[in-house]
Amino acid sequence: MAKYAFFLGCIAPLRYPGIEKSTREVCAKLGIELVDLKDASCCPAPGVIRAFNRKTWLAAAARNLALAEKEGLEIVTICNGCYGSLFDAAHELANDKELLAEVNKILAEIGMEYKGTTKVHHFAEVLYNEVGIDAIKAKITNPLEYKCAVFYGCHFLKPSNIKGLDDPEDPKILDELVEATGCKSMPRKQKMLCCGAGGGLKAAFGDVAKKFTQTNLENMKAGDAEMIIDVCPFCHLQFDGVQKDLGYSFPVLHLSQLYGLAMGMSKEELALGVHITPVNL
Asked: Whose CA is closest to 9, among 37, 30, 51?
């Protein structure tokens, strides 16, 4: 059985418990053991912390990486932002020994050290590369037939030169994962457009962020989608939270929740009732 340190991030456990619940259930069914990363902090968000102080960002990320390293585990996360922050920090520290030494001087103040060995993965990456589409299909007990707008977000594939998961401009990995449930991934314009929430835009310029979201929703409607499938709780929050103001009502599911439905979990188990936009399936 594959075994990973489970990095929850901030938004899922605070706002969308169904994402956490479904991830745990789905991973168990697929032979993946998730070990809670005790005492983990915010990743921290690179669009905010890194913009002000790069070493503070690296040290905070390295602390999380060190917690997994101490357990001898690689990290898996369900959030694009957490994936981007932790993956980028791990990459930088593994390839710059002088920088690693500087960060360890900061960590030494709290009695910690990071050796630079932790690998970081996204939940969807593990499903696709480690479990595989055929093995996933074998676990589907409740095939679905929804027409889905698959949303990749900004940090899942990029920076593509170091992640190398898929073509960053014309990816297929999430489409294939969604279609393994029996659903159909619907084509649309500007598929790789930002949800609008990233990089502090939502907090500083909410109206501008909404314009990005509205463009996405318009394209999804034009593409005849019935629901949105994402792989990031922050994108999830943006689509779920602002649709009413924009006149849309697409159900929004994290990929883990879609898999939960396809593997027999109930709407109650998936905590769909806490979503701001009603999930009427």
From this structure: 37
